[in-house]
Structures are given as C-alpha cells and as structure tokens.
Design a protein that fits this description.
single chain, 102 residues, mainly alpha, 67% helix, transmembrane, ATPase_P-typ_TM_dom_sf
C-alpha cells in the first residue's frame, strides 16, 4: 500500500484496498437480552453443581433446602444478567460518542 502523505490514496488504490481488505468499519455485535441471560448458565460449573444439589435435595425430601438453593441460583443469574446488560448498554452509549480513527 503506497500512499502519498499529502494527497492520500487515489480512487483506484482505495477501491483496490476495499476489495482486498474489506470495508473500513468496526463490527458491532449486539446481543439480545435473552442470549445474555442464557450466557449466565454456560460454562459455570459451580452453577451446575448447585443445580445438581437442588435436584438431589428435592428428591431426598429436603424441599425447603432445594427451594433456597433454587432461589440463590435464580438470584445469581438475574444479578449476572443485570450486570452484563447494563455494561453492554454503557458500551453502546460510549461507542455512539466516539469517532474511530485509523
């Protein structure tokens, strides 16, 4: 890529670069609220253990304990969702305010 510093690229060079490298745009991948909530359950092995304990305590007759564990799982997931969702909204707001420079 050869460009003169004062004049920049010619139209032909710019077109060649676009076809070779693609458009000069940033990818913005916005996640839906549902996918953010589902992500709270992926790869969280402690959560899997707690779900197993909830099911086991329910079938062993400890329904009160299983309800407590279930509500703790639910609370943890909702708080994780809220944290990630608000962070995404903050990033979106910041991205609207900045101008990317090469």
């Amino acid at each position: 890529m050869t460009a003169q510093q004062e004049r920049g690229l010619t139209a032909a060079q710019a077109l060649e670069n676009i076809t070779k490298y693609g458009a000069n745009v940033l990818d913005t991948q916005r996640l839906s609220a549902v996918s953010i909530f589902i992500r709270q359950f992926r790869g969280n092995y402690l959560l899997y253990i707690l779900i197993t304990c909830t099911v086991a305590s329910f079938f062993l007759g400890e329904k009160t304990s299983s309800l407590y564990i279930f509500f703790m799982i639910l609370l943890s997931s909702v708080l994780g969702f809220w944290n990630e969702y608000s962070a995404q909204k903050t990033v979106d707001t910041l991205l609207k305010r900045i101008t990317p420079k090469a």
